[in-house]
Amino acid sequence: MRRSKLLTSVLAPLIAIFISFAIASIVLLVVDIDPLTAYQAMWTFGTSTESLVSMVNRAIPLFVSALAVAVGFKMGLFNIGVEGAYLLAALVAAYFGALFVLPSVLHVFAILLIGMAVGAIWNGLAGWLKVKRGVHEVISTIMLNFIGFSLSAYLFLEHFQQEREGLIVATSAIPASGWIPSLNPVLAWFGVEPRAGTELHGFLIIAIVLGVIYHYLVNRSRFGFDLRASGINPSAAHASGVNPKRMVVATMVISGAMAGLVGMSTLLGFTHRYVQDFPSGFGFTGIAVALLGRNHPVGIAFGALLFGFLERSSIILDLENVPREIVTIFFGVVVLAVVIVYEVVARYATRRAVAAAARATAELEEAPAA
Amino acid sequence: MASEPAIQLSGVTKRYPGVVANRDVELTVQSGEVHAIVGENGAGKSTLVKIIYGMIRPDEGTVRIRGRETHFKTPKDAIDSGIGMVHQHFMLADNLTVLENIILGSEPRKGMEIDFRSASDRIREIGEKYGLNLDPSVKVEKLSVGERQRVEILKVLYRGARILILDEPTAVLVPQEVDDLFASIRDLKTEGETVIFISHKLDEVLAIADSITVMRMGQTVATTTPSQVDSRQLAELMIGSELPTPETRESTVQDQVVLDVSGLSLVTETGRQVLRDISFQIRRGEIVGIAGVEGNGQGPLVDSLIGLEQVATGRMILNGDDDLVDDEARDRRMKGMGLIPEDRHRQGLLLSSPLWENAALGHQYGAPFAKGPWIDKRGARRQTEAIIARFGVKTPGPDILATALSGGNQQKLVVGREIMADPAVLIAAQPTRGIDIGAQAAVWEELKTARANGMAILLISADLDELIGLSDTIYVLFEGEFVARLDPNEVTPEVLGSYMTGARSGAAS
């Protein structure tokens, strides 16, 4: 058991990443670039202190987004709506968060709660539509993304934007009590001092806590048992007393609440207000990261860090006259490879487990009855 | 004609992890005979048949069809060699006519169009030749189970089969329909066709077969003829030991009514009334049996009782005062309704999860499987070990995935978890379906013990012997209604069968 688990959880992603490197190398060779030079440049640049901090900062929203997607995956729901939910949540939280002042920790939590509520409502809508009207969540969340983008744009441009400093369009700034401080002082204890302007987002702590909550909720709680059972065999879960409709709504609400936190590291740790070019795309990339991490929080953390590393280190490629798109290709290939390799390895592991059980059973059959 | 056997298998071996497959199978089927292959569920009959029909390729051994060694890759190769198979579960499109179903996939063409006329003529011709009379223009949804089976046989003959494999053809039929089927098989034989008849019902085999091959644990253990053996000897060949019986001797029925169902009706979303005014009581220590041809409301009845369907009307009083009709499945579970589902893979198990999680399924709301809002893994594993020990589930431990167990062991786990939870009412739907005789006997024993300990049990079964043997009272369900209440001590499978088809009705006891 243990060994086969190790096989799937460690060996499979390594094989997948190796395959991805191989394919990326072929692509580079085709465009007449020495892959080793490119990788070396990425590695050298990517492992500097500033790059590592940047890697973690980039990984945080991806990690949260992937957790939101993974909750849905665990019960067989495909929530594509994280993107729309987090952008809307970030905007609304930024607007309301700037309206009041509270003691610092409380202020942060109030803003986080607003974000979670918006996300929960937005994705909960998709759950409600599925239960009431039988609308497939893939369709409804895609549509809700479009509506969310438009609604954000409307609210932002017509109601929430407060300041014009030159060309920057933004909501008014959240008071400092609502900011999350950077973790640079913690880094300093360990003797790591990045250059000025490079800050490790304090939201990292909240993200780690979220990962722990996710683990306990999904793998240890009764709710998580119902959730996983519904994902593995909906009919059996139903027969065991799980109300499938309530489960769909609850899962979408939880997924949405997590989605509402995706933009918070940027908002509370960096921009302190919603800006017109607020970073987008975390919701979609989160799906890839959830696949990469196989819905397991540790796997998702590694997946998010890998994506963060590649994103950051790809900056150097321009200077080396290597097209940065190679990293985009790499993202695609690594996700495909992981999905395929996992399937192959999981089948192999299951076959072995079945064979082992059969052998053990055969021994029991042959043993004389007591 | 008799020179070359129609089918000859020698040394055929097929290995699978975890299941009894085939080991050194020897089988000779003469041309123009009805050859029965008998064995318990799981003895390897299905694997053997799938090898003949090209669905599975053997690891070792040779398959000869009319003397020629063959290596079928797909069923199409087998069909081209004149082998046809009638599956236990029909593969027909309900909304198409008999004619359309038969020609589906091999439509005769005239130019760009389908030549329905010549197809229709050929079907009538084949029907007359083999005594399989059916109107080709009727829609399949209008046909009875026996007639549907005839469509399947016609379909196979239409494709030119001279060797027919009938996989458990009587499993879905009531006794009267079985007689019709046997008449057709005799007609086929008269016309020189070869029939392979798979069954585990020995009386039927003795009635129809010219020769019999017995399988046990993946091997062919004997080849005989009906004149050489009686059903008792055949059974002993099959199981290698004494035959267990489902019978319960003395009554343990007490006065106290545990479940009182009255006026239960269910109309589906499409407006079809699938249950009509169902009323019955189960007392402590009583097994109430429900007989019925599949599809007459058994599924909706179980779903209504366990809370998977919202019941339109009716009452369901548990222990005298608690009406469960408006409760959700989960509340009913917690109040003491247990379920052994009819299809363990669909409703009873999480195949890719470990046994301890499967043991918790349906009981994840409290001790020993949960503490407060958390799953209690240690308690769950301990309870799983207790189930494994008491019910003889053959497994190395509670962490094995459910998919790794054989069907019988999976069923023992499901039965075990429900009985160990000690529900007030246990709904046992097809509790011994698809498991071997050893496991079947164990399940019967456990149901009897639970009954003796005062459990109220609703038994729904297609196995009439099981139903008559275990039940204290039998109701017959026909088209969503109870058409008879019978005393199992006085009823025979034939009488039960006539109620099940609607040929007889009214309360008799």
Q: In a nutshell, what does this entry contain?
A:
Chain A has 370 residues and is mostly helical. Helix content of chain A is 75%, strand content 2%. Chain A has a domain at 56-293.
Describe this structure in words.
The complex is a heterodimer of chains A (370) and B (509). Chain A is mainly alpha-helical. Chain A has a domain at 56-293. In chain A, 75% of the residues lie in helices and 2% in strands. Chain A contains 16 helices and 2 strands. Chain A has helices spanning 2-30, 35-46, 49-74, 82-97, 104-133, 137-160, 184-189, 203-219, 222-232, 234-239, 244-259, 264-271, 282-292, 297-313, 315-319, 325-366; strands spanning 163-165, 168-170. A two-stranded antiparallel ribbon of chain A has the order 1-2. Chain B is of the alpha/beta class and 509 residues long. Chain B folds into 2 domains: 7-239, P-loop containing nucleotide triphosphate hydrolases (Rossmann fold, 3-Layer(aba) Sandwich), CATH 3.40.50; 257-500, P-loop containing nucleotide triphosphate hydrolases (Rossmann fold), CATH 3.40.50.300. Helices cover 33% and strands 25% of the residues of chain B. Chain B contains 17 helices and 24 strands. A 6-stranded mixed beta sheet of chain B has the order 6-9-10-3-11-12, with helices on both faces. Chain B has a 6-stranded mixed beta sheet with strand order 18-21-22-15-23-24, sandwiched between helices. In chain B, helix 13 crosses helix 14 (407-420) and helix 14 runs parallel beside helix 15 (437-452). The N and C termini of chain B lie far apart (54 Å). In chain B, 48% of the residues are buried. The A-B interface holds A 1, 220-226, 228-229, 232-233, 235-243, 350-351, 353-358, 360-361, 364-365 and B 17-19, 306-308, 328-334, 339, 341, 346-353, 357, 360-365, 370, 373-375, 394-396, 399-401, 403-406, 409.
| The CATH homologous superfamily of the largest domain in chain B | P-loop containing nucleotide triphosphate hydrolases
What share of residues are in beta strands of chain A? under 5%
Structural domain tally of chain B: 2
Indicate the percent of residues in helices of chain B: 25-40%
Extended strand count of chain B: 24
Our Rg estimate of chain B from Cα atoms comes to 24 Å
